[in-house]
Amino acid sequence: MKHPLTGILPVAPTPFHDDGSVDTEGMTRVLECMIDQGVDAICILANYSEQFVLSDAERATLTKVSLEHVAGRVPVIVTVSHFSTQIVVDRAREAEAMGAEMLMMMPPYHGVGLVPAEAGIFEHFAAVSDAISIPIMVQDAPLSGVSMPVPLLVRMAKEIENVSYFKMETPFAADKLAALIEAGGDHIVGPFDGEEAVTLLADLDAGCTGTMTSALQPELIKPIVTNYLAGDIDAALTQWRECLPLINHENRQCGLRATKVVMKEGGVIGSDHVRHPLKPMSDRTRTRLLQLAAERDVIALRWGK
C-alpha cells in the first residue's frame, strides 16, 4: 500500500439465500454497491459479515469471489481472526496471495476462560506478520473479552513490522485512541474508529483518521471524516448530526442485520437472511430502520431499483 489508508472502510455483509446458502452473485452486487457508495476500502469476513457462521470452504470462496470481483478498484481488507495462531497464519498467507491489501484480526479468544496472556497475544500477531508483507489492522473490540492495554498495543506497533493500523471499539474508545497515538507516535499509521461510527466525533477529536462502519450509509458518514480531516469541523459536525439517528438505530437496535434489510429493500440482494442462532429483525425495528434510511436517501436503498 503506497499511502496510509484513511477515510471510510466499511464491512461488507455476507448475503445468503433464503435457505441459508451463500449467495455469491449477491456478494458481487454488494461489492459493486459499496464501490458506488464511494468507499475508500472494503472489509470482508468481519463480525458484521457473520464470519462466525461461515465454514472454512465458504470463507475461501468468498475471499476469492470478492478479490476477483473488486479487482483492485479499492483495497480489500480480509479478516483472518481465529484462536489458533496457525490457522490465522494460513488464512493470512492465502488472503495476501489472492490480492488482499490489508488484514484485520482480533486477539485470540475462545470465551472468558480461554484467553491467552499478553505474551501469547503478542506472539500471535508476530507470527502472522512474519508470514506476510501487508499491513495488519488490530481490532480491539469488547466481543473478544480480551484486554489489550495501550502499552501492549504500542509495543506491537513498534516491534511487529506489519502491525500499524488499529480499530478501536472498546468503551471510552476516544481516550484509548488518544493515548495510543501519543505513546505510539509514527508507528500508529492508521488509528480507526468502529462500532458503526457511534463515537466518531469523539474519536476524530482524539486523532483517528478513519472509520470502519457497516455498508449501510458510508456515503453519508464519509464526509464527516473528510471534512474533519480538512479542518472544516463545523461541516463535520453538521453531517454527524444528520447521520446520527440512523447510526444510533443501527448500533442499538439492529446490529449486523441493518445493512442486509436495507440492501434487500433496495434490490442489492435477494434475501436478508441471517444464519441461526441469529434471528430476523422485528417488524417494528425494520419499519423504523427503513424510514430513517429513506429520509436520508441512502444509496443502498435504491441501488438495485
From TrEMBL:
Keywords: Lyase
Name of the protein in its database record: Dihydrodipicolinate synthase family protein
InterPro entries: Aldolase_TIM, DapA-like
SUPFAM superfamilies assigned: Aldolase (SSF51569)
SMART domains according to UniProt: DHDPS
Family under the similarity heading: Belongs to the DapA family.
